[in-house]
Amino acid sequence: MRDPLVPGDMALQPFLPNTASDFTLDAMLARQPPFFPAIALTSHGSLHLPVAQRHPMLDPVNAETILRKASLEPLNATQSAKLSPPKTLETVATEDDPKVHLDARHLWTQFHKFGTEMVITKSGRRMFPPFKARCTGLNQRAKYILLMDIVAADDFRYKFHNSRWMVSGKADPEMPKRMYIHPDSPASGEQWMSKVVNFHKLKLTNNISDKHGFTILNSMHKYQPRFHVVRANDILKLPYSTFMTYVFSETEFIAVTAYQNEKITQMKIDNNPFAKGFRDTGNGRREKK
Questions:
Q1: What's the farthest any 2 CA atoms get from each other in the chain?
Q2: What is the CA radius of gyration of the chain?
Q3: What pLDDT, in 10s, does the model give residues 251-274?
Q4: For residue 168, is pLDDT > 80?
Q5: Torsion of Cα atoms, 270 then 271 then 274 then 277, to 10°
């Protein structure tokens, strides 16, 4: 079985523009190596980007799992160690130790208990609960780019039968995954730490021809959201930057075109302030497929 969180080791060649005028986003996209997945930046902040190596120690309990990722740009570890300068007061002052805390964790845990479902539509649907997080340990003056992506949690397709989710077969092929860049990126560590980082504008779709930068998912498949912190002052530097990835197991969900579990439906109605229409009419649950 493939590792659902990590596509595998990759080595990327750095992009080197010929002239100053070439140093544009279009130029970078046009010259990317053939084994680098297609990059697409839109007004919604979507980015196709591969993920590097997985940390060998993963926390199995419902707590944040941190994956430290090497830079996507190839670098010999031995050479790196030899070339690293000794620490000084100046270098220590610029260091950071990013930590991410899931906001509204109790609500996510309640949904996770019954098997969280997220509706996907052709036009795109926002997640509820929305993914929100608080960051600490960032360097106040350094710039950071914050991103999210959603990856397959396993290799199976599911069905809701006898009031529970069960495996119904092998997973359908996945579309190339997109990373959603928080629209405030890049911003200083001080700015990120002063507020809750909210990804409520991220939308899920089952439209494989989507042109809006939404996250494309398969219905009746299980997915895992991931949160990424990148210390960089320009989005163009993302392919060559070091990613810090945070995984919260209680945010795992199954994508559906209509809610299957009545308990999940009721919890969405009770907790979502935008579900007034559901409460007034009693609608919102279409026939199961």
A1: 68
A2: 20
A3: 999 999 999 999 999 999 999 887
A4: yes
A5: -10
Sign of torsion, CA 72 64 273 195?
Answer: negative
CA atoms within 13 A on the CB side of 38: 6
Annotated domain spans of the chain? 37-73+96-281
Q: Would you call the peptide bond into 186 cis, given omega within 30 degrees of 0 as the criterion?
A: yes
Domain 37-73+96-281 belongs in CATH node 2.60.40.820? yes
Q: Is 64 left (phi over 0), alpha (psi -120 to 50) or beta?
A: beta
Cβ neighbours around 88 below 10 Å, total: 8
Q: Name 148's Cβ contacts closer than 8 Å, sequence gap at least 6.
A: 131, 179, 180, 182, 199, 202, 225, 226, 227, 228
Check: CB of residue 157 under 8 Å from CB of residue 220: yes
List helix spans (H) across 24-175: 25-30, 77-83, 89-94, 105-114
